[in-house]
Specification:
The protein has helices at about 1-10, 10-15, 25-40, 45-90, 100-105, 110-115, 130-145, 170-185, 240-245, 250, 255-270, and strands spanning about 120, 125, 155-165, 195-200, 205-210, 230, 235-240. Residues about 1-25 and about 85-125 have low confidence and may be disordered. By secondary structure, it is of the alpha/beta class. About 45% of the residues lie in helices and about 10% in strands. The chain is built from 11 helices and 7 strands. Helix 3 (about 25-40) packs antiparallel against helix 4 (about 45-90). Bound molecules: zinc ion. Zinc ion binds near residues 271, 277 and 294. The site of zinc ion has 4 residues, from helix 11.
């Protein structure tokens, strides 16, 4: 016992009793603590000495180690969360207008918080950028629907553009997101065998979807109106006033702005696929209106509808 007491006062151990280990490199202090504890146990130190060794060596080292471990866990967790957020909401891919990219990146933090949700900006609903993974999943769903439709499968490439003053990059981003989601929705034209991919190359598009300033609608064709949307050849032109305000008739009939947007995209793209206005009429009171019926002008007693009905599932 006396030998143990004297060896525990060995200068190699005593130097740790002064608390200086806090100032030494953590690794050396930690190993010194372990070594001293083992030495004390191996030499069968008295409970008093063992307690002293524990208090003077291990308590401090253990406390420092715990603080370091907790700090590492906190930093690692925060880093993982940041990386996950960046993966879920990367900067926008290339777009027709390079100016679109920078503002979208500036709104990245806000978009992360609103991922897969929507936020209201005035009357318009602004959706966060669709990440590549979401695009792949949406397109895969559309392709599965098209393959199961029993129709001949066709893949269309479309571009998105703006005509006139129709809002900033955020509005264009939202517009492009809604176009992609709507065209590839399993309730939509994929049931007729069609799928749609976005292209930034204007030379590779089967058609272009415009968001157009109302006063410029007639620049596409005299047959277009500044009140409604239009399709001219391979140009599908969505009237910005309708995009942001739908029509009173449709809103009063219970169709939300989001549903109206899907309706107007599907209707105008339906023209591009070969459909004509009012090729089918309202089948009866409160039945779903045919998609190609000019619902904004008159519902004829039908309920508003944004998806092609069974009788409209064909492509010219
Ligand atoms: Zn039409």
């Amino acid at each position: 016992m006396r030998d143990n007491d004297s060896s525990d006062r060995d200068p190699r151990n005593v130097r740790h009793d002064r608390g200086g280990f806090f100032l030494r490199p953590l690794g050396r202090t930690h190993f010194a603590c372990i070594r001293d504890c083992f030495h004390a146990i191996r030499r069968k130190a008295s409970p008093k000495v063992a307690k002293s060794v524990y208090r003077t060596h291990c308590m401090g080292t253990l406390s420092v180690s715990l603080v370091v471990i907790v700090a590492v866990i906190v930093v690692a967790t925060a880093t993982n969360a940041r990386i996950a957020a960046e993966e879920d909401n990367p900067p926008r891919p290339s777009h027709d207008d390079p100016a679109v990219k920078r503002p979208a990146e500036q709104r990245k933090d806000e978009s992360v918080q609103q991922r897969n949700k929507e936020m209201v900006l005035g009357k318009a609903t602004v959706q966060s950028a669709l990440i590549d993974r979401s695009r792949r999943e949406i397109l895969a769903g559309a392709q599965a629907t098209a393959a199961a439709s029993g129709k001949s499968v066709r893949q269309y490439s479309y571009c998105v553009s703006a005509k006139g003053e129709v809002g900033g990059a955020g509005v264009q981003q939202q517009f492009e997101n809604v176009v992609f989601r709507t065209l590839n929705d399993a309730r939509g034209w994929p049931r007729a065998g069609a799928t749609f991919t976005y292209s930034a190359d204007s030379g590779q598009c089967d058609f272009v979807v415009y968001l157009a300033q109302p006063s410029l609608m007639t620049s596409f064709s005299d047959n277009c109106s500044d009140k409604y949307s239009c399709r001219v050849g391979n140009d599908v032109i969505i009237n910005e006033a309708r995009w942001n305000g739908a029509t009173e008739r449709m809103l009063q009939a219970g169709m939300s702005l989001d549903r109206y947007r899907s309706m107007v995209i599907n209707h105008e793209v339906g023209h591009r696929l070969g459909h004509l206005d009012n090729e089918h009429v309202c089948p009866g009171p409160q039945a779903l209106a045919p998609l190609m019926q000019e619902q904004s002008i008159d519902l004829h007693g039908c309920a508003p509808n944004e998806w092609p009905t069974d009788s409209e599932l064909w492509i010219d």
